[in-house]
Amino acid sequence: MALDIRLVKLVNGDMVIGKWDLENRKIQDPAILQTVPTAQGEMQMMLLPYGYPFDNDIDGEISIDHVIYEYKSVPEELKTKYLEASSNLTISSASDLRNLENFGNGSGISDLLRK
Q1: Taking CA atoms, which of 8, 45, 46, 100 is between 20 and 30 Å from 74?
Q2: Which residues contact 10 (CB under 8 A, 6 or more apart)?
Q3: How far is Cα 3 from Cα 80, in angstroms, rounded to an integer?
Q4: Where are the alpha helices (DSSP H) in 8-106?
Q5: Which domains, from first to last, does the chain contain?
Q6: Please, which residues have CB within 8 angstroms of residue 11's CB and are 6 or more apart in sequence?
Q7: Looking at the DSSP assignment, which residues form a beta bridge with residue 18?
């Protein structure tokens, strides 16, 4: 079963991404999205645990009753960054896997597995 990751705006104005649990009417493991200006005058997005600075892990839950707006789509890159942050795992793309062919001393990954 794929995780249902959604991006929402709460009634207090916070933009939150998390695992949508409709059965229990909650957003599990919420993370807050904040915009941060850069020195070049651009804006960057920062993903933090919703309970930051008191909680350093992405966990907890928020009732769906506090959602005022749900974004139609969540950019895949944002989903990937959220899943990496909430699971402490790095998610590889297909291009990363293709690069494994050049792994090692010029040999392919299949040669490494045979040893």
Answers
A1: 100
A2: 16, 62, 66, 67, 68
A3: 12
A4: 76-87, 94-98
A5: 5-114 (2.30.30.100)
A6: 66, 67, 68
A7: 6
Per-residue pLDDT of the chain (115 residues; tens, 9 = 90+): 468 999 999 999 999 999 999 999 999 999 999 988 989 989 888 999 999 889 889 999 999 999 999 999 999 999 999 999 988 766 555 555 555 555 555 555 555 455 4
Q: Cβ(78)–Cβ(85) under 8 Å?
A: no
Q: Could you identify the residue written with the tokens 């919703």?
A: 50
Give the span between the Cα atoms of 44 and 1, in whole angstroms: 32
Distance CA 61, CA 13 (A): 17
The four Cα atoms 62, 63, 68, 69 give a dihedral, to 10 degrees, of 70
Q: Are 42 and 29 in contact (CB under 8 A)?
A: no
